[in-house]
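Now for a specimen:

…
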Amino acid sequence: MALAHLVIRDLFGYTLPAHLQALELVRDLEHFEPVPDPGHLQAGDLVWLGEDRPRVEQEEFVPQYDGDELVNGSDYPVKHVAICTGTRDDDDHLLLHASAADGTNAVWPLRRFRDYDRYGRIYAIRRLRREFRLITGGGDHR
C-alpha cells in the first residue's frame, strides 16, 4: 500500500491519510471515484486484484480487529493493488506494483496478472477525485 500512497502523492501532489490502507482505500469513495471497467483506465488509477474464487466474497467480508490490527485479513479476497502507468502498443494496460513474484517493484501488463490465482479477478478500479489533484502548472489544488 505504501507504493500506492507514494504514487498518488508524487503524481497528483496529494497525500492520502495514512490510516487508509488496502481495505479502507478500496472502499473509500470520499477520495476516489469508481472507474467502470479496464477499458477506461488512465495513468494513476488504482486497480485492486484478488482471488478469482474466494472463500468470502468482498461484499460479505466483515473486518475483525484486535485494537488497530486486522485479524481476519487472510479471508479478504482482495490481495493486491497496482497503479496504471499507461497503455502499451497492443492496448494492454501497464500496471506498477510491488511484485512478490519478481521480488521488487515491477511493471506488468494487465493480462499477466491472470496467470496468478491470487490476482485473477479485478475487484475495483478507482481514480483520485479531481478536487484532490494538483493542477499541472497551476500550483494549487482544485
